[in-house]
Amino acid sequence: MQFYSELETILQIAEPSQKIERFHSFYNAYKKGEADFAFDSAPILFDSPSYAAFCEVVPPKKVPKRNNLTTKEGQIHLLHAVAHIEYSAVDLALDICYRFRNLPKEFYNDWLEVADDEVRHFVMLENILEKTGAKYGDLPVHGSLFETSMKTADSLLHRLAVVPRYLEANGLDATPMILRKLKSLPNDKILDNIKSALYVILEEEVDHVRKGDKWFEYACKQENVEKGIYIDIVKMYYPKAFVNLKELNKEARLQAGFSCEEMKKMAGKEVCH
Fold this sequence. Notes:
The chain is mainly α. The protein has ten helices and no strands. The protein has one domain (3-267): Up-down Bundle (Ferritin).
């Protein structure tokens, strides 16, 4: 199995069940040691995300708001939004393996493991979404994660700073806030399913961000820069990234490799010692 060409094929498959089936076949072969890392062509920049084939892609502000979570409509909006993040995360994990080459085998082991987790998260959310009578693709989505992946396509250092250590790490802060809101609502079977899924995702995302931290440190050493460059890199892509920061999940971020000094710079105040 040719590693990079197979990843290129998987990344361009739009339909979720087909992408997931092809990924599982690829990943099983990879774990058996059947991957050939030779390549004769450079990675390509994709013009559009794979899901554009069945999702209406709109600016982030036009994505339906998840307001009243006691209503079926509100639950569908929340589920669809989180499912979209997880489906996008599958491609992000595969893309980092496809795009950045001649790295230690452990790098590809880590990110394919992340991709496998993200597939499982997506399927879990898709199953709950189907119980509401909806499906992924029913609502408009934004392409922000895809756009960021293409903007950081030529720098492993930037990709690791911006995707796992910024965008994915933000989920460590946001998910507990969603869970607190869900806990305050009356008992509801769909909401209970959503809470269970979010607990699984939160726990496993800590490991994903930790992997991002490990390889960000590796990239810093390769480029002979200090880890503190993280803040500057993120601000290049998101100038207002740390303005009016509401809440940091200190415990989860510490587990994922963030230092108290980094969090102090992000929050503009002492967060931990």
